[in-house]
Amino acid sequence: MKKQLFLCKGYVLVLLLAVCALNLWAQGEKEEEKVIWVTSVQGGREPEENVLFENEVKRLTGVEVSMIKPPSSEYSTKLTAMLATGEPLDIVYIDSSLMASLKDQDLFEPLTDRIEASKVLHDPSIIDPAEWERIRDKDGEIYGVFNKFEQGTLPIIRYDWLENLELEVPTTLDEYYRVLKAFTFDDPDGNGEDDTYGLAVGYSLYDLSSLFGAYGLARGFVKDETGNLYSPYATEAAIPVYEFLARLYREGILEPNFITNKSSNFRDMFMTGKAGMTFYWAAWVGLFNQTVKAERPDSPFKARGITPPKGPDGTIMCRAGNDGLMAIPRVSKHKDAAFKVIEFWHSYDGNILSTLGIKDHDYTFDNGTYELTELGKAHAMDHGAPQPKSLAWVNPFGELEGFEKAAEIVRTYGKPQYVTAYDKQWEEISRAEAAKIILGKISPEEGIANMNKRFEQEGIF
After folding, report:
1. What's the predicted TM-score (pTM) here?
2. CATH superfamily, domain at 33-149+323-390
3. Using CA atoms in the order 323, 383, 342, 88, what is the torsion angle rounded to 10 degrees?
4. How buried is residue 226: exposed, middle or buried, by Cβ count under 10 Å (0-12/13-18/19+)?
């Protein structure tokens, strides 16, 4: 009897162990089914909101995701390390510069066939087919899907100052000069004080691509007909632009702290009536108007994006933002589910999530009407893609004043920077030498020679 009881207890113990093992296995399988999504931009605006965002993705797609969001300041370093060690990631947000530098390591899954079979991504009414060709690799494959409309930088002007001075919108560099001079010396705000500058910018060359674009000069490095890299800003063709900027500085038209200005500095100068023009992102046309009118409802302030100046041969060009992409690492164990989430991001429901945010948290939807919650207003309709890439997107709240026209200009004349592994060196060297030229410390010819010499010393040429 004792022996039977002992055997019975043994069977029960084995059965319990088996059940526990099965539960642990099932739990592990469930954990493995999650799509691991590494990003610095998509998701909740606060860490605690990421769980709600993950739940919303599952509600809308049926796919369970787990988001990893390293600090923005460390994102590229941490992402590179995760990819290099083969961590089982399924979706990664990566900018085109970093992807270009990692391309030879064969880390990313080709997505061409999936994109071409997608009813969303291959729909020309959603994404312009030319955009796919623009990011197609030299091997014929596409390795990433756009995150959002990256906009671009363009001239932004105090339109009310133009009206006050009865001036027309400038279209050439000569006309730009006359308007900027008038903004500096002709009391455009009518306060009787000599307290304005024509132009306020920062970071030296960062946002001035519209001026170089008048001569067809692209920002960064490009390839010549033999396939070798060179910098258009470091050629003789750029001399007229450097002379134009040096003249603005010499005559007191360019705000003098342009080298040390952070973007917040020149934005504030533009909004507070210290400068009549800046060069910045298209979205800020609307944000400038919204911010000033919220603080000073009676202000005559009118910010407008305007077409960049045309050059001697009629060329017009500005800088389009470099692409942020969603890619699937080759090591991913859930490529189908990962692509489903990426595809969803460009659907209408995905656009709502990437902008307005989480239903019943950031916004409510009742009887066909969207309404932002107080938290949603604070989140400013940005959960990873404040301006979706989809051409079919229509913001249910409308766009901010002036944005649509600015976006149209960028779409028409914007050209993304050609991405290389040497973009950081280009930035540092070009800014430093251009600043010396603008300040009058060296001639444009000397500055251009210095740029090319330093590029060569870096091993780029």
Report:
1. 0.80
2. Periplasmic binding protein-like II (3.40.190.10)
3. 90
4. exposed
